[in-house]
Design goal:
It is built from twelve helices and no strands. By secondary structure, it is an all-alpha fold.
C-alpha cells in the first residue's frame, strides 16, 4: 500500500482480514488503490479470469472496512476513517465489475442503497442480469432484505418467458417464477408469459 496508508491504523478486524488475504488478492487491491481512476481498475478486473475465492476475500475486507469507516470519528482529522472509506470503495468497485456471487451482489446492493447511490444500484441490476443464473436470481428474490428482493424481481421481470417457464417445475423456484410470469402477463401484456402459465396449469391438473 501507499506509505501514507498503514493497515494497522484501520483496527484489528481489518488487519486480521488483510493478513488472511492471498498475495494475488492483496496485489489486486494495491493496484486499485494506486490507480488514478476507477475506469482503469475496472478494465484490469474485467480482463482477469473470474476468481470466486478473490470474491470472498474482497467481500470480507469490504465488510470490515465499512464497519471501520462507520465507527470512525466524523471529524476531518480522522484520516484512518477517510482512508478506510476510500479503500472500501475500491473493493466495492472491483466486486461490482467481477462478482458472479448472489451473496456478494446482495452485499453490494444493500451498501449502495444505504449510501443512496442509485446509479450504482442500476449498474448492479444490469450486472446481475448478465452474470447470475435464473436460480440465483430467484434466491435473491427470497432475500429477507426488501431492497435486494425488489431488485431481483425487477431483473427477473426482464427475463424471457421460456426461461421462467422452466423454473415452474422447480419445487424451490416455482413460486417466484410464477409471480414474475404473472407480472409479465398482466403488466407487460406478454402473450408468451400467458401461454407459459396456461401450459403449466394444464400440465399440473
Amino acid at each position: 500500500m501507499e506509505s501514507s496508508v498503514i493497515i494497522e491504523d484501520f483496527g484489528p478486524r481489518v488487519k486480521s482480514v488483510w493478513n488472511d488475504l492471498r498475495p494475488a488478492t492483496r496485489n489486486l487491491i494495491e493496484r486499485a488503490w494506486q490507480s488514478p481512476t476507477p475506469t482503469s481498475t475496472a478494465e484490469a478486473v474485467r480482463s482477469a479470469p473470474y476468481d470466486p475465492r478473490a470474491d470472498r476475500e474482497l467481500s470480507q475486507l469490504l465488510a470490515a472496512l465499512d464497519e471501520r469507516a462507520a465507527h470512525g470519528d466524523s471529524a476531518i482529522s480522522d484520516e484512518p476513517s477517510r482512508q478506510a472509506r476510500r479503500l472500501a470503495d475500491a473493493c466495492a468497485n472491483m466486486l461490482t465489475q467481477q462478482t458472479q456471487s448472489g451473496e456478494v451482489f446482495a452485499q453490494l446492493i444493500q451498501r449502495a442503497h444505504s449510501r443512496q447511490e442509485y446509479a450504482r444500484i442500476d449498474e448492479l441490476a444490469n450486472a446481475m442480469a448478465m452474470r447470475l443464473a435464473p436460480t440465483e436470481l430467484c434466491e435473491l428474490a427470497r432475500s429477507a432484505n426488501v431492497v435486494v428482493r425488489a431488485l431481483a424481481y425487477e431483473v427477473l421481470a426482464q427475463a424471457p418467458a421460456p426461461l421462467l417457464r422452466a423454473l415452474l417445475h422447480d419445487p424451490v423456484d416455482a413460486e417466484v417464477a410464477r409471480v414474475v410470469l404473472e407480472r409479465q402477463a398482466h403488466e407487460f401484456g406478454s402473450e408468451e408469459a400467458r401461454q407459459a402459465l396456461r401450459e403449466f396449469d394444464e400440465f399440473a391438473t
